[in-house]
Design a protein that fits this description.
Helix content is 30%, strand content 14%. It has 18 helices and 19 strands. A hairpin with a 2-residue loop joins strand 10 and strand 11.
């Protein structure tokens, strides 16, 4: 292969071992809290003889500063058992993981317990307000460093020559590691507050970070009903709005999110999930899936819920649409996306929140993640490209097709609608090519038996969840009868379209799921990269989530293209099998499991293994791994990658 020789850059300065994956001084309350810039850019922000007055903070990217410094307070209100804590948790994870916001959850019950005042007292209300202000006003990033410079006429002047070092009078502000408070103190010691371009207390400094969101909710709606931050009446909502508006220095905007659920099936499913959560994670996992809707609720549980709801409804005041609260910003989420009403929801973040709330629901999610089978580039240790499967990868594709009907078509013995996504690269399409796509009458999903029962354990059909053996895929007569018909309907004896149908595992291809693009290094091995550009290899090993391949992508770039897919994924009620690539699956796995995104590049997604993730409105996510095999070069018997391979054959540096 001929490739133009790339000049090696000088190695970047060594950084302290305790510097995190993102250059920041944040002590965030949310796992995905964002910072000013990626660590692999830090060596570019140092003063040099050619650039004695460097840019202290590079411009933001969407994944690092996507909320543009805006402060918001979200107050979740509504009747009991509507899933407000669930919404608070999902919204927090989404805003921090995909948009870089610093998010803090405020449980009104917990804060009021610490306040210690009588219910509904001014003491409790101001205690909560001070907690919100402390979070909003905390200096948590270095995003304002560009303003920590002397004003014109304060002794600073432009250098006489780009090649000469600055004179002692210039005194440029040099970016150093450490907290934002330490760096500001160093600058003040050099120049003094009055000499700085923007005063430390100036509100403009608050508008350059990644934005902050405080989410208020109540785990026990009855206990905090009288509290002023509960939003349970027009007077309390008005007080909260006016209190925040009066503090102009804080600059926080208030949004009420009212959760309205009047569908019995949603309420009962939510109660079942709550009861399973009380019994511990084992009971929750055993009941997850479609079968959970058949769980019997104790009579006393139903009576208690109905009684509590009636008593609360008599004293609770919903958001009014008679004009008396038209000046407030609010969202009415009715039956989790069946209907969404917004009022005065102008701005980027507000519309993103409304869009996300319209797709989430507290009923169970079952997501299956699988890398493609081993590719020819995996065997050679090459990055990227669009190679076909190796013989081992082709065998995995066959085993996956045998495994899917038993383990995904049937959830706890019940025939269930299910979906399939792949990337546009041939190795994922080939991995899913043998998975059956039977056309099933919609009425079949209403029967516990479905069209056919899953194979019994101990029969001549072996379990495909081991590296050897496999379960033959089920054959559905309806597929043969409807092969030439318009989609979604079966044809009757007289040619009349008389019944809606569902295509199991209907394949959908998304370019958003394609592997990270390695740019100039596509088709190369890491050994080759280390030889021609050792500094790039060093930067990537130092900052894997923020490092961008030359003319290629970073993990943060992948986040931007995964954002719209996550909205669709959250809206599904059916199990979803997602066949993609390691870098993409690392991010999706971390989001679904509630892990900080800076840890995503360290997550191992082994080849020839299916990961099943289950979560609902009350129970934390739970994962199971099924090793299908086979073993091959670079793949151990347990499905993990040998020789430090991390991404599609890439060697860890």
């Amino acid at each position: 292969r001929r490739r133009p020789k790339k000049l090696a850059m000088p190695d970047p300065p060594a950084l302290p071992l305790d510097v995190g994956p993102m250059a920041s001084d944040a002590r965030s309350t949310s796992p995905g809290a964002q910072h000013a810039y990626v660590q692999s850019q830090s060596h570019l922000l140092k003063a040099t003889s050619d650039n004695p007055l460097p840019t202290a903070v590079p411009p933001p990217i969407a994944a690092v500063a996507g909320l543009l410094g805006v402060r918001h307070v979200l107050c979740l209100i509504g009747l009991p058992e509507r899933g407000k804590p669930f919404i608070a948790q999902r919204l927090s994870k989404y805003l921090s993981f995909f948009h870089g916001a610093e998010v803090k959850l405020f449980d009104v019950n917990e804060v009021m317990d610490r306040a210690g005042g009588p219910p509904g007292s001014d003491h409790n209300a101001m205690f909560m307000f001070e907690e919100i202000k402390a979070f909003m006003n905390a200096t948590s990033s270095a995003a304002d460093r560009n303003m920590t410079v002397p004003r014109a006429g304060s002794g600073r002047s432009a250098p006489a020559s780009s090649s000469s070092p600055p004179s002692p009078e210039v005194r440029p502000v040099v970016v150093r590691e450490g907290s934002a408070e330490v760096q500001l103190a160093e600058s003040l010691a050099t120049h003094g507050e009055e000499e700085l371009l923007v005063h430390p207390s100036d509100r403009r400094r608050k508008n350059v970070d990644s934005g902050k969101v405080a989410i208020l909710f109540a785990n026990d709606t009855f206990a905090c009903f009288k509290e002023k931050w509960s939003g349970t009446s027009k007077e309390r909502r008005r007080w909260a709005s006016e209190t925040l508006a009066k503090d102009r220095a804080l600059g926080a905007k208030l949004i009420f999110i009212e959760v309205i659920v009047d569908r019995a099936d949603i309420l009962e499913a939510n109660l079942r999930a709550r009861e399973r959560a009380k019994n511990g994670p084992t009971a929750s996992r055993e009941s997850a899936g479609p079968a959970m809707y058949e769980d019997e609720l104790p009579d006393e549980c139903l009576r208690e819920f109905e009684d509590r709801a009636r008593r609360f409804q008599r004293i609770y005041v919903s958001m009014q649409e008679d004009g008396s609260e038209d000046d407030l910003s609010y969202i009415k989420l009715i039956n989790y996306g069946d209907k969404v009403v917004t009022n005065r929801m102008h701005g980027y973040l507000r519309m993103r929140i409304a869009q996300f709330l319209s797709v989430i629901h507290p009923t169970p999610h079952v997501i299956y993640l699988s890398r493609h089978g081993q590719s020819e580039y995996n065997v050679l240790g090459k990055l990227g490209g669009n190679p076909p499967l190796s013989p081992a990868g082709q065998e995995y594709a066959r085993r996956l097709a045998q495994w899917v009907p038993r383990h995904i078509f049937y959830q706890h013995g019940v025939l269930t609608k299910c979906r399939l996504w792949t990337s546009s690269l041939q190795r994922t399409i080939l991995t899913a090519t043998h998975i059956p796509h039977p056309i099933v009458p919609a009425s079949s999903f209403d029967s516990p038996d479905g069209i056919s029962s899953p194979p019994r354990r101990g029969s001549h059909e072996t379990d495909a969840a081991t590296p050897s053996g496999g379960t033959p895929s089920h054959r559905f007569r309806s597929r043969q009868r409807s092969r030439q018909l318009p989609p979604r309907y079966l044809q009757g004896d007289e040619g009349v379209l008389n019944e809606p149908v569902w295509e199991q595992m209907s394949p959908r291809v998304y370019r958003n799921l394609d592997e990270i693009f390695a740019g100039e290094y596509e088709g190369m091995t890491y050994e080759e990269i280390k030889k021609i550009a050792p500094s790039e290899a060093t930067l990537r090993s130092m900052d894997k989530i923020g490092y961008r391949y030359p003319r290629g992508e970073s993990y943060l770039d992948i986040l931007a293209r995964l954002d719209p897919l996550v909205h669709e994924l959250e809206s599904y009620h059916e199990p979803l099998l997602l066949v993609s690539h390691q870098a993409v699956l690392r991010l999706l796995y971390s989001y679904l499991m509630g892990k900080p995104r800076h840890q995503a590049p360290k997550v191992e997604i082994p080849l020839h293994t299916v990961i099943r993730i289950t979560y609902d409105g009350w129970n934390p996510p739970y994962e199971e791994r099924f090793v299908l095999g086979p073993t091959a070069k670079g793949i151990r018997n347990d499905g993990t990658i040998d020789e430090g391979v991390l991404e599609d054959g890439q060697t860890n540096l």
